[in-house]
Design brief:
single chain, mainly alpha, two-stranded antiparallel ribbon
Length: about 110
């Protein structure tokens, strides 16, 4: 059992504090990667550079893996269950960016 205080409120989480801390660090690293992948994906879309769209698709797959690892570390119950919808969204993002990559490769106006 892990207990911590935040803004005058006390929170108790079923599981170890080390597992919760690791889950928080994985979530933070995933957020940083999300920001970088989003910027690269926007640049790829605006400049019509197809290979830059692979980076957000790769991030989305990595995000799903990190979410599964985080859930396994803290257990599949409680607050951690809230990250399951984000895994579905990340999979949809991977499919979207990969589809856009294929479209850009087929209709590349810069190639000739």
């Amino acid at each position: 059992c892990c207990e911590f205080d935040m803004n005058g409120s006390s929170f108790v989480i079923d599981g170890s504090c080390d597992g919760f801390k690791s889950f928080a660090e994985i979530t933070a690293a995933n957020g940083i990667l999300q920001c970088i992948a989003g910027v690269v994906g926007c640049v790829g879309m605006f400049m019509y550079i197809a290979w830059l769209l692979i980076i957000p698709a790769g991030w989305a797959i990595l995000s799903v893996i990190l979410s599964i690892v985080g859930l396994a570390m803290v257990g599949f119950g409680g607050f951690a269950i809230l990250s399951i919808p984000s895994m579905g969204i990340a999979l949809l993002i991977a499919i979207l960016f990969y589809s856009n990559y294929k479209i850009m490769k087929e209709t590349d106006p810069k190639s000739g």
